[in-house]
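EI: anyone free to look at a 244-residue chain?
SC: sure, send it
EI:
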Amino acid sequence: MKGKEEETTRLNMEGIGDVFFIKNHTSRYLRISMKPFQGVRVTVPVFVSMNSAKQFVEEKRAWIIRHAKNMTEKEKNATIFRPGVFFRTRDHILYLHMHDEKSIKIIIKSGGIHVFYPSFAQVEDQRIQCAIRKGITEAWRIEAAKYLPLRVKELASAHGFSFERLSFRNNKSRWGSCSRDNNISLHIQLMRLPQHLADYIILHELAHTVHKNHGKDFWQLLDKITGNARKLDKEMNGYRLEIW
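SC: here you go
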């Protein structure tokens, strides 16, 4: 059986700011939490009155003030996508839309990453920001599948390399890898690199089909096919896999 929808009430409390009181039909106790861009959220059982919930917040005032500074620091250092701020991948532009539904929807079509979020919510809400990042990541995945296989084949052919399988991933470990069996794996975020650096990563992994380590012979080969491997490798230090 489908559960009843939660009812949210926002109140501005002096010295604290906005507090979101969320009536929950399954909760048995009052609970309070603070997360970046979500503010103070209080889960309220249906049998607890709003006056009792507000008194509960007053009792937690010292805790709220103590944690507010930490939340502010986290918000300041976070990557936040807002309406009116232009962002694009290679083939897609990000569009943020408010709608009257309570759900968050992601639609990728016709060169757009369309994220729809509830009109009553703040775009900085962590759930909305996660949906935006998910949409951007999916756009990179689509673009990687479209462009990278051809580019890997072009560079392999131009420099006399051969490889077995090509796959894509999205993790926080490395830009690419080459297995013992010459299977190459590339990170989908190569799509946000300048073309010469994306080519460098591809050539780096193709060079590993010949030399499996990072010894002298490997760097000599990579120098030969890139022109200046050490310089390009140093330039890659300006890019992080973890961008959020």
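EI: The beta strands are 7-13, 17-24, 31-35, 39-45, 93-99, 105-109, 112-118, 166-169, 176-178, 184-187.
SC: 👍
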